[in-house]
Amino acid sequence: MSFAATLGLVALVQIGMPNLFASPDNSATARIAMWGGREIAMLFMASLIAGLATTPYAAFHFHRVTPFGVLANLGAMPVVSALVMPAGLLGLLAAPFGLDSVFWWLMGIGIEWMVAVSRWVAALPGAVGRIPAFGIAPLIAASLGIIVLGLLRTPLRWSGALVLLAAILWGLSARQPDILIAGDGASVAVRGRDGYLHLIRTNKDSFLLKEWLAADADPRDAGRASLADGVSCDESGCVTPLADGRLVALALRVDALADDCSRAALVVTTRPAPPDCAAMVVDRQRLASQSALALTQRGDGFVVQAVRARGTSRPWLPAGAGEGDFDGSLAPKSTAPRIKDATPADTDLQADD
Known about the structure:
By secondary structure, this protein is an alpha+beta fold. It is built from ten helices and 13 strands. Strand 3 (179-181) and strand 4 form a beta hairpin. Residues 314-353 are annotated as: Disordered.
């Protein structure tokens, strides 16, 4: 994000920002007045361009944008530059002599001002825009557009704006998963008919739920009771319907698998699933191999996006033996027709048979 902001500021200087706010050649009083207006305008432009340049990365990593960031910078940055940073530097220089307390006090005043400004801006209507998660490809396209805008000096640079616009539309059109499964199999989120995620969880991992909700651009907090709407649970497990009415089951006990395999379209369990289970299954072996999963419905099956996909081996997490044996999809099991036994019963046999 820092590189993107710097590149945006470099591009702003290249197109002539200093010339846009050059001081007029007139009286000293007018120049002083113009200097203040010029500096405010330059701060506004610098904050705007830096904020726009970092927006794709903030949306990708944090799933949110801050349209009033420029306003916060205008309120806080002058105090940071004039008070906080100088006081901090002078405090470090005065610390060996025991004369630093007054500088930390001044620095604290500036920091309190920054916090007050941030809280005021955050409380404004529409201060936070929520962005659904999107893949790395739109982010790469947005980076390419920013680089073209920032580095080229010919009119061709404006083609980067078209690339950036296409990347934004690409990211906003990304389809969200229909099912999210935690790596330990203890939490499952299922998208229902209302378009929202309905959560099945057997632990209190609030951080995971906050991340799921943020990635789905869902403003609800992890403790909201509505997250469990449509979820039915007992001591053996939980079930909740998909948007098409099919059931997703989280089986907690072995004796629940037989019933879940016959009723649900997808069964999630940390137990070994029976080989004759009629439902699609995410069991202990798959979770151990692929960790957390995101499932997107395709036909009657699902496209699987895994943390550890097939062929993935990282230096800090090398692939173990047997890992990667699962492909990137889940498909309903084909039910073979039973062969009817044509042998007549003993009671149907005649004496001459």
